[in-house]
Amino acid sequence: MSKYLFVYHAPMTPADAAPPDPAQMDAVMGEWNAWAGRVGDGMVDFGTPLAGGVRVTKDGTSPSTREVAGYSIIEADDMEAALELAKGHPHLDMPGGCEIEVHEAQPIPGM
């Protein structure tokens, strides 16, 4: 099995969004937990919301140019299986055109 990083993109970070009421939060977290249940033992790191991204280069720092709302790390048999899990993810149903990038973790030679 390989590890896959799910990077959640949204038009705004969770910190910038209006806070949901408790019933909305329970419903959304219920959907995320149901998705995690489908991932099962392949869930490596459920992840967390992210905010305040900063790009670092040799020339200095600047604000991130793309809103990264959060991440998860899963294990799957292959990219096709990881993409199937991403296609059924509740993040895609959030307002504003939310997206998920899926990246396969590559082995580091000698490690």
What's the alpha carbon Rg, rounded to whole Å? 15 Å
As residue ranges, the low-confidence spans are none
Going by helix content, strand content and strand pairing, the class is: alpha+beta
How many strand elements?
Answer: 6
For this structure, what is the CATH class? Answer: Alpha Beta
Global outline: flat
Mean pLDDT: 91
Widest sheet: strand order?
2-5-1-6
Number of H- or I-type helical stretches: 2
Relative helix content: 10-25%
Q: How do the SSEs run, as a string of H and E?
A: EHEEEEHE
The proportion of residues in beta strands is: 25-35%
Give the biggest beta sheet: 4 strands, antiparallel
Count of discrete domains: 1
The third-level CATH topology is Alpha-Beta Plaits
Under the CATH scheme, which architecture would be assigned? 2-Layer Sandwich
Cα distance spanning the termini: 17 Å
Give the name of the CATH superfamily: Dimeric alpha+beta barrel
